[in-house]
Amino acid sequence: MKRARTTRAAAILLGPFFVLFTVCMVVPIGYAVWLSLFTEKQSGLGFGGTETVFSGLDNYAAALGDRAFREGFGVLLGYCLFYIPLLLVGALALALLLDSTLARARRFFQLALFLPHAVPGIIAALIWVYLYTPQLSPVVSAMESGGIGFDFFSPDGALPSIVNIALWEWLGYNMVIFYAALQAIDRSVLEAATVDGAGAWRTALSIKVPLIRSSLVMVALFTVIGSLQLFTEPLILNKGTGSAVSSTWTPNMYAYTAAFERNDYGLAAAASILLALTAALLSFVVTRFTGRKGKKA
Fold it and tell me: Please, which pLDDT band fits residue 44 given cuts at 50, 70 and 90?
């Protein structure tokens, strides 16, 4: 009887989650997979209506065979190699500084660093587009007056420009996660390290960082997944700025263009599924790598 009550209570508590998970995750993914297996073709010489026909894996082959789609993954690779280390190291460094005994006005700096994350991504991108635009931006004017010339919309400047926007949005958010983890460390451990003669740097690198390893892994995993979904910032830079960012600059933009500009929903679904599989594979690699490293430690 007791076991039956426990099972019933678990079913009642977990039921809403599984319903929402099925409606919001399983059904959309299943529909996307189904949609990716079909394509629309015009009958006759193009004067008749369109019909939906089964195409199997043709949409996947078309996406993988499209140079623009493959180059989008190259852009994501460069973005991840540039953005993820800067974000993790920068957020961790700021959290360690706030957690140090020399820090002052912690509340103020936490709020000041977190506030950019409260700005919606589209608004943040628009703000930075203004700051990147010559003849409008005080930042560009100050750089030019100092003899520094840099085109934020050029082929060489587009990627650093977007990385800068993403850092501005997410650095403070992840800093708060690391700072909360640091605050949860038993102070007696840190006091023991100080008694043993460990300095501030030694304590931070050899004690604090290993003790918040789980938070580092979580942030790294979410950052990898979020990086693969890069869309808002390059989309804003693509619209009317003369930027080198094209409409297929990332895989997400490729799928968006295929669906809403070319009305090729099968190709867009196939590109989305391929991107989701890439995210799942990278998530698996990150968790396995960090798990093995943790066991060795």
Answer: low
244 pLDDT band, cuts 50/70/90, is confident
**CB distance 206 to 198 below 8 Å:** yes
The residues, any chain, with a CB within 8 Å of residue 149's CB and separated by 6 or more, are 143
The strand pair at 50-54 and 38-42 is best described as: antiparallel
* Structure tokens that stand for 27 in this block: 């059904």
Residue with tokens 């490293």: 293
**Is the pLDDT assigned to residue 5 strictly greater than 80?**
no
Asked whether the beta carbons of 175 and 91 are under 8 A apart, the reply is yes
Contacts of 141 (CB under 8 A, 6+ apart): none
Residue carrying structure tokens 């989309």? 235
Q: Which residues contact 124 (CB under 8 A, 6 or more apart)?
A: 116, 165, 168, 169, 233
pTM of the model: 0.85
Distance, in Å, from the CA atom of 223 to the CA atom of 79, rounded to the nearest integer, reads 11
Assigned token pair, 144 = 């030019």
Q: What is the pLDDT of residue 274?
A: 94
State how far the Cα of 266 lies from the Cα of 36, in Å rounded to an integer.
4
Helix 67-99 vs helix 58-65: angle between axes, to the nearest 10 degrees? 70
Given a contact cutoff of 8 angstroms between Cβ atoms, the answer to whether 164 and 128 are in contact is yes
* Bridge partners of residue 39, in order along the sequence: 53
The dihedral sign for the CA sequence 289, 291, 293, 295: negative
Residue 16 in tokens: 């809403």
| Whole-number Å distance between alpha carbons of 244 and 71 | 14
Residue 147 sits at φ, ψ, to 5 deg, of 85, 15
Q: How far is CA 72 from the centre of its chain?
A: 15
Cα separation, 107 vs 103, in Å, equals 10
